[in-house]
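Below sits my pick:
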Amino acid sequence: MKRFDPRVRLPGFITSLFRGATWRFDQTKRTVYLTFDDGPIPEVTPWVLELLRKENLKATFFCVGENVVKYPEVYQQILNDGHSVGNHTYNHWQGLKKADQEYFRNIEKAGKYIDSDLFRPPHGWLKLSQYRYLKKRFRIVMWDLISCDYDSRLSSQAVLDNIKDFVRPGSVITFHDSIKAWKNLERALPESIGWLKEQGYCFETIPYHKRK
């Protein structure tokens, strides 16, 4: 029996609060959806892009607006390589800590630079009032499995084990193209991709549409 870790897969009573969000795709197909949060940054994102090119894979990048402004050439490379993109707020704000209108303005500010109808709230933290408002304007994408690559207490092997233990058909898998995650990402991402391919999984992007 697989272990249960609420950090890696949220319990059902939480996901049911955001029933209209995307947590997982078709459960009958052996397909997974790689997503990357918090970039783009020049120290990590180009390495991720090079690995994806080498593996002939496409992914979905949930970008922080201020990083797009700081590193437009890295963001453009994501687009040039044919990956999907989504809004991850301008300042990586957690909705529970912000007043609704302030939070919405921050998301719209990011939307000036990230032209996408996909939105992922940092840490998945949203007030229900924020969720009800945003789901009318965005396709809200959460996750089925978080690798926890950002956790400095974990080894890269533990991150890889999270993938092996929790992946299932249709999983939306979250990694991070961030400095915090780099220690684990450098080994865990290529080994996760290799293992998933060995298990017969295919990889797809989450399609997005421009809002402008």
